[in-house]
Design brief:
single chain, mainly alpha, elongated
Length: 83
C-alpha cells in the first residue's frame, strides 16, 4: 500500500521518552543474559530479580599466575586488605 504525503495526518506520540526509557530498561534487564544460551538462563534465574549487585574487585583472582592480570588483581587485593 502506498500513500501520498497529503493523505497522511500527523498524530501525537502515545509514549513519552520516559515511557520508552522504562521499557528499554525492563527489556534489557530481562534479556541481558540471553546471548549465553542455557547458561545465561540459569544466571538470570539467580540474578534476575536483583536490580544491582556488588562484586568487590578484591575478590577477583586471575587463574593464570603468569598473566599480567594476576599481578594487578593480587596487588589490588593486598592494597585493599591493608588500607
Amino acid at each position: 500500500m502506498g500513500r501520498y504525503p497529503e493523505e497522511i495526518e500527523r498524530a501525537e506520540p502515545r509514549d513519552t521518552q520516559d515511557d520508552v526509557d522504562a521499557v528499554i530498561e525492563e527489556l534489557s534487564a530481562e534479556h541481558f543474559w540471553d546471548h549465553l544460551g542455557k547458561q545465561g538462563q540459569r544466571i538470570h534465574q539467580v540474578l534476575g530479580k536483583v536490580k544491582e549487585y556488588v562484586f568487590p574487585l578484591c575478590d577477583l583472582k586471575a587463574g593464570n599466575q603468569k598473566s599480567a592480570n594476576y599481578v594487578l588483581t593480587d596487588d589490588y587485593a593486598v592494597w585493599f586488605a591493608n588500607r
